[in-house]
Structures are given as C-alpha cells and as structure tokens.
Task: structure prediction
Amino acid sequence: MKPFISLFLIGLSFSSLASVKIQEELYLPGLRPEIVKELIDAGTIEIDHVTSEGFEVYGPRGIAKYLDSKKIVFFDMKAIHKSSLAGYPSSAQIVEKLVSAASKYPKIMKLINIGKSVKGKDLLIMKISDNVNTDETEPEFKYISSMHGDEITGRELTVRLIEEIGQKYGSDKELTELVDNTEIYIMPSMNPDGSDMKQRGNANYRDLNRNFPDITRDTESTTAGREIEVQNVMKFQATRQFALSANFHGGTIVANYPWDSKYDLHPLDGFVKELSLGYSDLNPEMKSSTEFPGGITNGAAWYVVKGGMQDWSYVWYNDLQITVELSHQKWPDYSEIPNFYKNNRDSMVYFIKEVHRGAGFKTLRPNASGTVEITQNSPVVQKMGSFAFKGSEFYKVMPEGDYTFKISEKNRSPKTISVRVEKDLVQANGNYISLD
Ligand SMILES: [Zn+2]
Result:
C-alpha cells in the first residue's frame, strides 16, 4: 500500500485549491493512483478519506461523466444518503433543540449567535459554564461539528452531549466539576445550509475545511474573500482564548492530529498524539481500527489538507486542535446514532477535561498585550516557543512539567513566572498565575 499512498500525495498537493467547486460527490472503490492522476490532469478536484477500501472525489459537474467514459466504477455519495435520511432532524429542528436546552438550563448554558450562513441561517455556539453570563478566567475549550454538511454524526453527538450536561449538572460529579471550572463552547452545525442540502460544501458549493488561511501559503489570518461561515468562525475565535479544541467529521473512524498541511512534525507531536490516543482509547471501535493503528493518524501522513481549520487554529490562535472522524458512513442510519454516542461520550468528556492540562496567567488590565516566551525546565529542558497574547488572560495546553514564562509587554519591564502543568487534574477555575 505504501507506494500507492505516496503517489496519492503527489497528486493531492495540486488538488487542494481553495477554488474547487463541489457539485459532484463520488466514491471510488479501491486504490487507483492512475485514476487520481487522470482526474487531477482533467481539472480541479479534491480528494478525501483515502483508505485501503477506496477514496472520495469532490469537484465540479462533469467528473461522473468523465469516469463513465473511462468505464471506471464509482458511487454517487449523494444518492447513498437519501436512503438513510429518515429520522434526522433538519437544521431548523437542531436550532430548536439548542434554544430549548439554553432556556432549560439558563444557569450554565447560553446560546451565542456568531452570524449567518450563506442562506441566512443562524450559526450558533452553545457556551456552557457556571456563571455563564460572565466571562471568567477559566480554560476555554471548543467543539465544532459538521463543517462538511453531509458529515452529520457529530451534529447529533454534540447536541446529545449538550443535553446530557444539562440534565446531569449538579448530580454528576465529573460533569459538574468540568462545567464549574471550564468555559466550554459547542457548535453542532457550522454548515447548516450544506446539511439541509445533504452535501459537503456550503450553499456556494465550497469546502469550508479548505477555506481557512493556510499556514504554508498565507502570512496573515485575514477573512477577506472567504466563505461567510468561515469568516464568522474566524471572527469569533479572535474574541476568545481557546486553548484546546476538536472538529468532528465523518467518512471513517479515526482521530487525526496536526499538521494537516505539511509533513513536518508538530512542535507538540508526542503530546498531541497522546491526546488523540486518549480520545481513541475510550472509543472501542476507534481503538480497534484495522486501518489506523491505535485509531489515530497524523493528518498530512494520511493526506495533505491545505486551508483546513485544524492547522489554522494552532498557528494563529495557539488553540491545539484535532479532527475526529466519527462514523464510516457520513449519514449512518438514524437508529445507529445512540450507539455512536455511547462509543464517543466518554472520549468527548475526556477531551474537554484535557484543557486543564495547561497553565497561564491573568491580569486585571483588560488591554494587556505582548509576547510570552515559554521554556520547559522539567522533566525535559526545551524551548516551547514565543506566543502572542492579547487581553487579560493567556493560557496554553502543554505536557505536564515545570515551565518558565517570560512575559514581555510594551512599556513594561519583562516579568518571569514559574508554572507547573499537571495531568488528570481539573484545576479550580484553571491554572493561572496573577500578574497583578
Ligand atoms: Zn469532513
């Protein structure tokens, strides 16, 4: 399988143009590098979810006709969906569920509208925390699902998680502790138009996970020219201090860690692998994957994605993100959803908890800004890098150990603080050192 994969990757670097218009969604069984090459030569296409069983091809009208002319077997993925749609709520019904949860649990839930989709649907994020109407200094965590409109499992699972947290807050010790000491943001549906149209792209047929600033091509994170759903998520991210996040997809079952856009190892490679394994370990189906050892994979080693959300969030916002593929079928039979929730529930809670594996600082000055240079002193000595901060708090998720933060602000003398990061510990309101 190895030589095939490398041939794929050569092709993929040409195919991930932000301008690919997705009007046809096809599945080609088998690994056929010669077909990929032909398709790429034939025009702009995008490939996803390459496994030993086959791969997905996305692009403008005409691909199916082209494959037919070459007598190449394929399936129309949009046709597959129709049979299993029964039972799924519409995006309007998802909104109703979120509105209902927010009104049922107003002490810990607040629904935030971050803007509209192409067709004018509200893009909603549920904030879950104690004192939910106050912006507290607590580690900030985020889940975003279904930016690919047809990858629907995560939308169901995130709504179920929100409802379970609401029901069990105050009685379940683990969930209560998490809500009391964390700011959790959950966005079940980043692409409601796409979900209602049962398609991957948004209403403009654009792939939102190829539409973010790309760390290998862009020097700045700017919203100009991007799809409205991407712009709204970018603007919201800029107002928060997310330290750990995941985005949910479907099409296979695996936890995918950065980088997606280049082959270099992520500076926290060992750590992000460990976090991904932590997710997979609690999910029996993911853990026992025959396709991906341990149920995890490095993004680029699987296939290169340019302009994805995962790499963007870490490089520009220090928000460590993984991508979780939840189900082999993008649109599984609705009766299977409870079982997917069962398989992912503990993993989802575990991953939120991991945002407490970090440290930061806070100040009463709301407009502080500068850079923080982080050095790890034990158990290994290493430079972690220099990170920009803005506002009254900074927080970074890191492997356990002792660290020095050297904080530099304009017109202020530099300040050095010592912090310790511990594992398996939900800190009361987070692990922050006060600068004041
Ligand atoms: Zn996806």
The longest strand covers residues 369-378. The longest helix spans residues 337-353. Residues 148, 151, 209, 249 surround zinc ion (CB under 6 Å).
